Structure formats: structure tokens, C-alpha cells
Amino acid sequence: MISIEQLKILVTVAEGSSLKQAADKLFKTQPAISLAIKQMEAQLGIALFNREGYRLALNEHGQILYQKAKLALSAHNDVLLTAQQFGQGYEAKIVVAVEASFELQEILPALEEAQQKYPHTQIVITQQYISGALEMLEREEASLAISPEPLNRMSPIQIESRHLLNGKMINVATPKLLERHPALTSVKQLLEEYQVVVQDSGSGTKGINFSVQTAQRHWYVNNFSAKLTLIESGMGWGRLPEFLVARQLQSGSLISIELDDFPSTTQVEYNLVRRSSGLPGPVANYLWEELKTGCL
Known about the structure:
D-Maltodextrin-Binding Protein, domain 2; about 40% helix; 11 strands
């Protein structure tokens, strides 16, 4: 079996100008390098170098194995570096639970920085609805959460939070739906139209319907994509993140619902949240700091 040391010798000789240069780089004698190459060729059963000129040069087989040896050495070094980082307390994986109405574009620079700085830590982004992100943090299924106010005040655990930014949720419907109500001024006039509601991915609002009036017909969906599809098809109306419907509002395929007794736009405060107890790992702590400063 070919060893890592033999692969290093193959690559070093192939990339050097002479056996002496390779020997100096590897802190070995020239005869030791020459012997190692011959032993490698004997083990493989093929020649790797042409020996006709004044210096060793890779033959066709040698060129192919040289490229594969470089990949193997890179993978070997990656294994060692990963193990070293884990040994120093770097997390193998961190999970960031994000409220789905939050625009991910806002945190991509921080995520990219963390990915480049800690390539051996897997960063998982999971989108949750309403109380779902905070509950993942409570169950220690997430290292960080991005959660809207005032839900983070409902947490039974001690948490640390920092305000990130504000967003908007807009009540929208198609022109076709609104044409059925030419004198629309009150939400009560929409009782017979289906309001499309996203279900909480957590349990914090179990039994509670936010912004749904009594006797209102409604659809339940489990994500914004399904909600948008239903609303765009004219099968209902509802509240969606501004960034998700900006294009439709501009084109006129969706219209903001303006009512006297029901807000057309709702401001949402998003906060970065983590548990106060326990020491965060270095990657989670780095991402916490990057997200805090990146969204200011």
C-alpha cells in the first residue's frame, strides 16, 4: 500500500527541478529519495518517470497518478486540519433557526465570512414560522435564532438578544379578488373570502389565530411559498413579507389591501437570539458577532 509519505515524495519530485531539490525540501538524502521512487514503482508495478534525460520526468502514467496524489494529499491535510479544529473546540455543525419572514439576503455576507473562516464547520440554516425558531433554541436544537418581537419575551429560558433590523408584512390580494368588493373599507367585508394563514412551526401560538377575525374563512398552509401560490391564484388574501411580494406589487398582479379597521402593513422587529446559559462554541460566537455588526 502506498503511504502518504510516498505520495509527498512523488509530488515533490514531479514539481521540482532535480532530485537534490526534492531531497532538500523533504529533509532527506538524494539516495533516499531515489530509493523511495523505485520502491513506489515496484509496489505499483509500473514506471512513473522517464529516465532518458538528465532529470526525472513524469511519463503518461506518472502524470495521471501525480494529479491523483495531489488530490489525496489535499484530502489528507483537510482531515488533519478538521481534526485539529475539532480538538480545539470548533463545532462540527451549528444550526441557525431563522424566522421565514426574515429576508436571508440581509445576513448572506456574515454567513459567507463564517463559511470561509471555518470551512470545516457545517452551517445549517433552517427556516421556521412564528415561534418555531425560538423553540429550536430552547430545545438546544439551534445555536442561534432570528426571531420576531414580541415572541422572544415568551421564552421560558434565559436568552440574550440583539436587534437586527425591521421588516414589513403586507396584506395583499389579486385585483380579481378585490374587484368583487368595489366599496371595500372593512375587513368584515372579507369574511366570505378565504384568508390564507401560515401555521406556527412551533407550539407557542397553539390555539391562537393572529390577525384572523371571528368566523373568517381561512386556508392553513405550512410555508410562504404555498401561501403566495394560493393568493396569486385569487383563492384568498393574506399577509406576506414585503420582499416576497415586491415584484408583484410593482407589476400590479397583487395589490395592497387598504382598510379602515385592519392594518395593510405590519412592522416586524427581528432579533438575533441565543441562550444565556452555557458557553457558545467559537464558530457560533463568531457568527453572533458578525450578524450583530453586519445588520446594524
